[in-house]
Amino acid sequence: MSEVFVTLVSVGVDAGCPMRFRVHDKDIVEFWAGGDPIGEFDVSFEVEALRQFLELGARAIAEVDELRAREQADADPKCPEAKAHVA
Hints:
Layout: E1 19-24, E2 28-33, E3 41-46, H1 47-75, H2 80-85
Antiparallel strand pairs: 1-2, 2-3
């Protein structure tokens, strides 16, 4: 009988952190972040779970981009978008 071991971990990955991946046959993709074996973190996704994660990530990036654009527009009073956000 096979059991799956699950652990909860919080990892921060900054821009510039080395990352790589490997496809295990056709069903699993494994990602690594970090530059050395001691500080390295890895995560494996079933392909369909990876699709869901990437769709969620795309939505998150769109939300971040929208927030940044609003902040930039609000900081520039000459920008037409700044007036649209003032209610």
